[in-house]
Amino acid sequence: MEEPLLRLNGISKRFPGIRALDNVSLSVHSGEVHALIGENGAGKSTLVKILSGVLPPSEGEIYLEGRRVAFRSPHESQLVGISAIHQEATMFPELSVTENIFMGHHLTKRGFIGWGSMEKRTRELLASLDIGIDPRSKVKTLSFAERQMVEIAKALSINTKIVIMDEPTSALTLREVEHLYKIVRQLVADGKAVIFISHKFEEIYEIADSYTVLRDGAWVGEGQVKTSTVDQIVRLMVGRSLDQMYEKTEVAPGPVALKVDHLTRNGVFKDISFELRQGEILGFFGLVGAGRSEVMRVLFGIDRADGGEISIGGTKVAIRNPAEAMRQGIALVPEDRQLQGAILAMNIRENMTLPIISNLAKHRILRREAENEIAERYGSMLQVKSAGWEAPVNSLSGGNQQKVVIAKWLATNPRVLVLDEPTKGIDVGTKATVHKFISELAARKIAVILVSSELPEILGMSDSVIVMHEGRITARISRAEASPEKVMLAATAATAGHGGERSPL
Amino acid sequence: MTGQKSGTETSARAGTSRDGASRTRAHSLRNLATQWEMLLVYLLVAVFLVNSFISPYFLNAPNLLDSTFNFMEKAIMALPMMLVIICGDIDISVASNLALTSVFMGMASAAGAHTPVLILVGLVVGSALGWFNGMLITRFAIPSIAVTIGTLSLYRGIASVILGDGAYTVYPRSFAYFGQGYIPGTHVPFELVLFAVLAAGTGFLLHKTSFGRRVYAIGNNQTTTRFSGVNVDRYRLIAFTLNGLAAGIASILLTSRVGSTRPNIATGWELDVITTVVLGGVAITGGRGKIWGVALGVFLLGFLQFGMGLVNIPGQVMNIADGFILIIAIMAPELIRRGRAKASLSARRAAKAP
Q1: For a disulfide at B97, which of A411, B156, B184, B247, Cβ 3.0-4.6 Å?
Q2: Which residues of A touch B12 (CB under 8 A)?
């Protein structure tokens, strides 16, 4: 076979305490759309960052048209012909379309900026993509889809060879998606290559020629879309034998601990109803932006609901703030460990005791022994590895930081424990410890909500799974009936946009 | 990062050294705090030596005690300012608060109020103005710097309008004690003792109570603290109200000491107060600082300015010195930290080299 346009060989990327990419290889030929597939956290974004020069790889080589290349900046990556269209378009809203397209490589004429020629070129570019936008309009007046197309036009203006699109359809309407497909087909017809990142299968079958699947930062398979079934690709995506990974203790669920009825927050989520029993682990699955974390924020009193009811142990409660949620026995291990979960500059003891500090104090005066006792008890329970409980949290690895955050919330002695992405960005070993621990908590009759974007985790840990999509519950599936395909379809099906048939769930 | 230059070995090393560096950094932060205070002690000793060289009478005990009259009002304002800054906020309206509070006391005095009433007016008006800052900041989620720039002009503006080109100069005789008096039978100024008591109280509040722990938590990470069930805005409001209360107390002391209220009373003092706190080792970004540092900062800046007064350095030049000290105090910890990081990195490199 001819030398591919782009070839990655053994790319690895390590961050302190975590291996984000492990020996990933990938080949893309000119004139094809190559889908990069994987769950959230599989390493797709890291790979895009390496390709677009935002991050240097720790190991491995990149070959473009057979020549080895290395980029020290996004600019260098663009110079050799790789352009990334980002999920959140990075543009200058106050500037015109022309100015945005030529930002960084203005056309000049005898030292002066050649506005006339730039505007003419912009017109040509937009026309070639069949985009009806005035080159003079300010970017802030454009729709999301239009901005995305301007980004593509910008990529073409610097004669790019490879266009990377990171989940480009996630915010587009049906018609806009069709237009985007048309542009993508035109690009490959012109001999360019497109790397298309997505986890929507309809899309992949519609537009892509070949694919590569990543899982946990590693290459797990590649192939031609035409000759592969959805089943095969999903299996590659979620892979591994679930029973081996997740030690789950069987627990006979107790009485209802938490009941949520038609909970609604306008514009964010709607009509969320579910029941959670003592000792039960209820999984919440959905793609990023499905509204899961937002439901949990309301449950914990950080945001307010616009409608619906919450009952704890059979009594209706009004949760106005986190302190009230804590009094009701709810604890939330939030999504963002460093921003919401821990206070990095403070030590382990201070972090663990923060929510319960007034209970530990006597007449508001701190009691060090009581604090040490809590740190010792919960720190050793979760096997936090540190140089002692006085070590600042920023001296710990990501996994141990997360253990501190979980310990902090266990110390509040919750009846309902909400874990939002508890294993995001932590190493495999620590992940297993956390999973085992969650299972033990359920065995001790704590009601657990597990929000996760990792399908194996959801399937391996949950007694039942609630799937959300765009702020609504799209499926409730019991452990016995849950399969990766079913859950994934419920999380994505609603956006299919083609034909409109849904799998019967 | 040098990771991409040459393959496996280099990048693996880069990974471990970064891991190690964060550990050392956290460790050295703690040392830095105590070392900063030691540095302040040395500087204080140096200022004492220079001052006693300039004036042979400086180290004479009564003179030394008397010289504290010059900066005790600012010192008292620095205490809750410490709370405000540790919370990650700032209040630059304190001197204007002091002025407006003084005007209210002057009005009360002119209306025939006695000393206890004047004290009450001072405490209530000062607290109310501080509370007003806090309300605007927390209720409308406006940055404290923006709100207090506004009230800096607003409070002093109201004071000037009320006073016109006049002044309140009549205060009851017993009112003079607070700013001029000594503890009976000693040569210790009342102001100094009051500062010592309030400083001890502030230190206790910050370092020994759950209130203090939460204040540090707020300054380090407001979001996490809110997620931990702390009503962050309530704590910030309390900090601003206490700050106003201290401005009220300072207003009582200063009005009593100079025996009059003029529109330009305590002009520019906010700079001294904030400089004291930052010089004391409180991070301007919040979350870090100790009462001992601030106490040392009070005396260091106070005696330094007193010394400059001894050699007749004009006020404007003193302002230059203040600004200089403020910048250095803000920059120094960061520069030391960077220097350390660089040193530890090159030490590591040297150790690794064959």
Answers
A1: B247
A2: 14, 58
